[in-house]
UniProtKB/TrEMBL annotation:
Subunit structure: Consists of a catalytic RNA component (M1 or rnpB) and a protein subunit.
Role: RNaseP catalyzes the removal of the 5'-leader sequence from pre-tRNA to produce the mature 5'-terminus. It can also cleave other RNA substrates such as 4.5S RNA. The protein component plays an auxiliary but essential role in vivo by binding to the 5'-leader sequence and broadening the substrate specificity of the ribozyme.
Keywords: Endonuclease, Hydrolase, Nuclease, RNA-binding, tRNA processing
GO MF annotation list: ribonuclease P activity
HAMAP family membership: RNase_P
InterPro entries, A to Z: Ribosomal_Su5_D2-typ_SF, Ribsml_uS5_D2-typ_fold_subgr, RNase_P, RNase_P_CS
Annotated organism of origin: Kitasatospora misakiensis
E.C. designation(s): 3.1.26.5
Superkingdom classification of source: Bacteria
Family, similarity comment: Belongs to the RnpA family.
Record-given protein name: Ribonuclease P protein component
Catalysed transformations (reactions): Endonucleolytic cleavage of RNA, removing 5'-extranucleotides from tRNA precursor
Region named Disordered: 35-56
Length: 142
């Protein structure tokens, strides 16, 4: 189970991650990663608007998209449970305030846990590498 403060629930948060975030596609899934920037993103969270988020502590939050193209409900739920478990173990690696959306593709229905893990790790590695490269200072003085 993913802790409630680490879950994406609002449509707006999913849209933000997909539209503003970077994307890494793999054969079994597509991962979107966005950073929440700006003064109002975390400081305006009150217990009324965001009941599961502690004030002032932006944590990485994850959401999952598993469409009917993946298969019947039993298969979709199995894929979602596997992805939730995999992402839960990797949330600590994500920058604070990150939004991550994992979209399962139809081949994920027949994939093993290890195959999903491999694709998720490869996608996150690519996204985090890009993120670190973008935030690293350039060596202009060398």
């Amino acid at each position: 189970m993913l802790p409630s403060e680490n879950r994406l629930r609002r449509r707006q948060d999913f849209a933000t991650a997909v539209k503003r975030g970077r994307r890494a596609g793999r054969p079994l899934l597509v991962v979107h990663l966005a950073r929440e920037d700006g003064p109002g993103d975390h400081t305006d969270r009150t217990s009324d608007t965001y009941p599961h988020v502690a004030e002032g502590t932006p944590s990485a939050r994850a959401g999952f998209v598993v469409s009917k193209a993946v298969g019947p409900a039993v298969t979709r739920n199995l894929v979602k449970r596997r992805l939730r478990h995999l992402v839960r173990d990797r949330l600590s690696r994500l920058p604070a305030g990150s939004l991550i959306v994992v979209r399962a593709l139809p081949p994920a229905a027949s994939a093993s846990y290890q195959e999903l893990e491999r694709d998720l790790d490869a996608a996150l590695k690519r996204l985090l590498k890009v993120e670190h490269a973008a935030s690293a200072p350039t060596g202009a003085g060398r």
